[in-house]
Fold this protein.
Amino acid sequence: MVGDYPDTKNSDVIVITAGAQLKAGQDRNSLAAVNTKIVSDIVNECYGYSPEALIILVTNPVDLNCYFAIKNSPYPKHRVISTGTLLDTARFMKILSEKILIDPKNIGGYVLGEHGETASIPWSLVNICGIPLRTYCNENGLPQVDQEEVRKAVVQAGYEIFKRKGNTNHGIAASVFRLIRTVQLNEHSVLPVGCLLEGEYGLDDVVLSVPAVIGRKGIERISS
C-alpha cells in the first residue's frame, strides 16, 4: 500500500517505522544521525493532517527518536510514545518461562530503561502469580535464576533473530498491536513504554521506558 501524508488525515493512531535499517553487526544507536531527522520530519508532516493523533514510534534508536520527535514537533509528550522495552519485556517473559517451566502469562515483571544493550530488569518486581521469583523457586525446588544471564539473553534476542532472518518484524508487530489495542479500547493498561520523563524517578529531559498507564489519550500517567 502506497500513499502520502494527506491519506493520514484525521488518524487516531499513527505508527512510524520509517528509517535506515540495521545491518549485521551494527548497534541501534549508530542509526541516530540519520533516523532522528527522518522521524522528526515525518512527525511534523503528520501533525498538519492529524493534530490529535497518538504517535507510536518504532524506528531505532527508538527512545532517542521519541525524544527528538517530542522536542521538534507540536505534539504534546503524552501523545508521542516509544515502543521502548515493551518487546524486551515480552522476550523476558518467554526466556524466564523456559527456565522455570511456567506459562509466560503467569509471570509479572518488566524490562525498563533504554531499549537495547543497557536495558535493566528490576528483579524485585518479578513474580509468579504474585509470588516473588526467589520465593517461588525455593518453594518449588527450582534453582535460583541467574539474573545477569537472563538479562543478557533478553538484550541479545533481537540480534539473534536478526542474524537468522534479517529482520525482527513479528515481535515488534505484536508489541505495536498491543499498544494500539490498549489505546483503541481505552484499557488503561500498565505497559513499559518510552516516555519523556520530567522529574519522575529523579530523572529529567530523557526518554526511557517506565511503567505507564496507557489509554485513549495516550500516556495517562506514569506509575511510580
The longest helix spans residues 147-165. Residues 64 and 70 are 10 Å apart (CA to CA).
